[in-house]
Structures
1.
Amino acid sequence: MSKIADWFRRERERGVREKLLKHAELVEETAKYLVEFMKKKVKENYVDDSLFTIIDNKEHEADVLRREILRILAASKVLKPEVRMQLARIVRQADWVADWALEAARLALALRQATVSTEVVDSLVDMISEVYITVQKTRGCITAMFEDPFKTLNLCDEVEKLEENVDDLYQKTRRLFVEKCSDLPIAAAILFFHMMDAIEMMADKCEDTCDNIREYVVSVA
């Protein structure tokens, strides 16, 4: 990866690596505040509007930074077109994680008055906690991909396993929801299912990000 590392150390292109790492940090922070927001919503039935604002702002910051990164990549005359495309895909997939986090928070806002059983709450909290670990590990993959391809590939494998754990928790939560929340109004039930889907999609996009990271490290190693 010496040529790629040299590119990222060039004075003219120096900011790209830092921007990619900052973008990953913003995505993780969006997920972190979502966990806090969702725990208050489902465990205390309290919607914290200030936390929602933070989630919204973090997601917006990530969007703005993604666009900056794409502009820099488009203007680069050093990287090969296929490498620029791979980096663009990585940042786009990672950005989807923050997008889905915001969507989950928006759906929770719409469910402001809805309550569900303790069993569903506990399962949902387990799921979103596992999603956050997946997001953290994905950020680690993005950090490692500039330095150590083998470490990166191992971290990507860990993300894939975590995503499978999220899938299992997702299925468990859906099953419990059907069993324990049959008295919930239909509109609220539909929104709740969409909220669970949004949370699960965060893990899916982490896996997609790591699939693109694998392609990148293999192509430049």
2.
Amino acid sequence: MDKINFDPSEEGGFELARAIVLQRLKEDRNWSQYDHSGTGFDRYVEYVGDPVAGRRRLCFLAQDILWELMIQGVIAPGLNINNPNLPFFHITEYGGKVISAGKYLPHDPTGYLDRFRGEVINPDPVVMSYLSESLECFSRGNLVASVVMLGIASERMFLLLCNALLDSLSDPKEKAEFGKTLDRNAIKPKMGWVLDKIQSLQRDSPRLLPDNVNIMLVTIFDFIRCQRNDLGHPQDSPPNVTLEDAYVNLRVFPSYCGMANQVINYLQTNKV
């Protein structure tokens, strides 16, 4: 495991400290009490400069992060019936899913966005803006707002794909037909048109796009869009989004964007 460089003299350091805390929670299943000495972090950290100052700074930030994770439901006070209170803590059932998950943890928004920028080539700035807002809302427990922001990011990604498809169409009649469809406000006809076109492209041999492209671009988009529409318009009853709902949506979104980007890149260099 590569250690994380931590420089106590640098301003902030909170995001690095969060990554260190999450890494320790993931790998050290015996960690169940606040670490006042900071020595328990040593296997995960490469201190830059004075290690004593580094441990002291990391311990201070780790306390804030543990409280944040407690508010988010990843950990909870107490270890067992004999130690039911702080400074002991335990990973919750939901937290176990978070800690055991791979990449793209919404509870680590900086790491999430850094990985997104690295894997989705030249991400659209509007998509990034709404995605960042969704992660910020998630971190603060504003789950309805998080899902709505992510739905807008998803819809923006789909419209970028639609524009790339329109530019790529070689048949003037087909292009005019799809152009009229895009001018309408309704999303569903646009989705149907794109799905039909992609399915026709996939009937060619060899297939031009990955086998699961329809599922990734339409099913996942529709899943997120429906939740956004249900939450973004007045309803007869108050909106309800669970923590796991918002968490799953944010975990799925990068795969959807990656596939959409792959299709857009193909359409920008090929006529269909």
3.
Amino acid sequence: MGGQTLKELYVVLFEGKVRERESKREVKDRLKVHFNMDKAGIDRLFSGHRTIIFRSEDRSKTDDFAKRFADTGALCRIEVHYEEEPDTQSASRERSDATAENQAEDTPWEADKPASQDNESPLLPIWQAYVGPRGEWYASKFKLFARNGRTAFIPSWNWGAFLFGIVWLIYRKMYGLAFLFFGISAAGIVIPGGSLAVSFFFGAFANFIYFLHVKKKVATIISASDHIDPTQAMENTGGVNPIPKVLALFLIMMGVMALFGSYFFDLASVAPQIN
């Protein structure tokens, strides 16, 4: 071929598509964090055009990058391309430099960035910061629930949730779930051993429930980071309630429930007289 050789390149292609049942917004958020991309880079990727996001002569590096990219929920594929290369050492260096420049233009990520230890989510430090007190302990549980870009329940135990239930939920700022838990606990009293069964169930699932809560709140803050102060939002919605506020909310909730309870008991006592 007149002194020319063919160089085999492996390229990763992306056309703006995500896996079935995946939210594009969540995939974009993962790409921002995993590959340190800005909004302009994300918009360019999801423009619908075929984009070369990675290229290398090393198939293992290409496979590794494609896996990390796919773990975010984005659909990509690998193709083999061939380029002519002069069969001289100096020309080879020039070609390599040109390839590196093209790769820098096409690929906004660090090609040799190692995968996170144990395939843990890169959002883990943010989740830990959001939790506040005992953040490191909860992060060790969250790491089990979020691996390879997917969420899965892994059995764990939370003594605080088991022993204090609704108080723990208020302390961790999960107010809607606190009302729901109280209703479930009240219904469990009617069944012999029901209240204890509810407590055991909650102790086993509390960490995962809290993880889903934190994950959703952090994703909302990241999505709205162009319009709000993320640091302020983390302080306002994350962390824990001070103990006096927890007790006050708990007493208010008990008072409301007692009021409803007395109302229904009054109806029950009146019912026989009507008949």
